[in-house]
Amino acid sequence: MELFELILLSYPVGPMPNTSGPVGQDTKDHGPNPAARDRIARAMALLGLLISLAGLGINGFKAIQEHADREARLGIQLGEEIDSAYRALNPTSDGMLETTSKTAHEIRVAEEHLARAERLAPGDDRIAHLRVAILVAKGKWAEATVALRRHLEHHPEDKEAHAELGGVLYEQGELDEAEKELKAIANSAVVQLNLGLIQQKRGNVKEALKLYEDAIRSEPTLINAYLAKCQGHIDLEEHDEALAACEQGITISAGKDGRLYLALSQAYSLRNALDRAERAARLAKDLLPTDPYVRDALGKILYYRGKRKEAISEFETATFLEAHSTRFKYHLIWARAGLKRLPDQDFRLIVTGIRPCDAKDKSCRRER
Question: What pTM value is reported for the model?
């Protein structure tokens, strides 16, 4: 898991980011494969001893075989718990964590799987990474930083942890330190993506776009790179290029990533093509029905299209899904009051995983 890619958006999104945020998550499996392989390998090694230890007799043979079977079952169970926890944190992306807004229920489910995994194999490195992922989902960046630095003191070779630490530092605005952690690992499409996010946050959008293009050339299926590219073109008001980047990502993802449809709706909105923006936002809602930022974005589009009653319903849902956010409450109040125009500064989609923030919303992540 390379949490730094938590892009997107957290819009994942998130993670960076699954990010959103920097974003840097690759698509490798976080679940059964890594955790189970070690234990299954040990089980197979033990089975291999059966031949050389046949002289132990039938009782010794059965004991070794039973131990090997237990190791194999344990590895599979551990992998299933870890995989299920990541799916709870990001149900829209197979094993890919993002810094998308998480509900209390999603986090609680992930914590339950974490507890079971800890009982199965408390010292497994995969559990340390999962624990950090849950801290990130809660927005506890300082605690995640401490946990990762402690882990790296004992495992300085852990490239995944360096990537995750880079993501956490990025979220806290420590760009130089984040860049340092990224450069501690080998160059890859994810590293290029995250370096691009750092450049974009520094205001070097054109340089960031070059890095996103490099990432896509290295790994054409890296969805977060298309999201970041779309946001970069939006920042430069290059709306045709933004639409093209989103549509490319939708094609690559086979239309299964709601974040891309949300980004597409934003690009259409900025061109004042609200009919197309609404269609894209509804597709995002179909894929991410419990994401409050999707519901809020759809609500704003509906409001400007004169569908005030339906817009209010979307704002009510967003407020319900994330009751602590003053942003959604304000939109609901303003829509009920029938104002001609809602504030636009928070309508911007942040595909790198950072949520728009309210000054009074202490749990909200820092605005990029």
Answer: 0.66
Residues 6+ away with beta carbon under 8 Å from 277 = 265, 266, 268, 269, 301
What domain range is 43 assigned to?
Answer: 28-92+103-127
82: burial class by Cβ within 10 Å (0-12, 13-18, 19+)?
buried
In a domain, residue 63? The reply is: yes
Residue 110, in any domain of the structure? yes
Report pLDDT digits (tens) over 184-242.
887 888 889 989 999 999 999 999 999 999 999 999 999 999 999 999 998 998 989 99
296 in helix, strand or coil? helix
Tell me, yes or no, whether 61 lies in a domain. yes
Nearest to 17 by CA among 244, 178, 247: 178
Residue with token string 């998480």:
102
Nearest partner of 227 among 194, 199, 202, judged by Cα: 194
The reply to whether 145 falls in a domain is: no
Which tens digit of pLDDT belongs to each residue from 82-99?
A: 777 777 776 444 333 334
Domain count, the chain: 1
CB 105 within 8 A of CB 331: no
What sign does the CA torsion over 96, 318, 225, 98 have? Answer: negative
How many Å apart are CA 317 and CA 322, to the nearest integer? 9
**Are 17 and 202 in contact, with CB atoms under 8 Å apart?**
no
Tell me whether residue 104 is exposed, middle or buried, using C-beta atoms within 10 angstroms of its C-beta: 0 to 12, 13 to 18, 19 or more.
exposed
Place of tokens 């390379």: 2
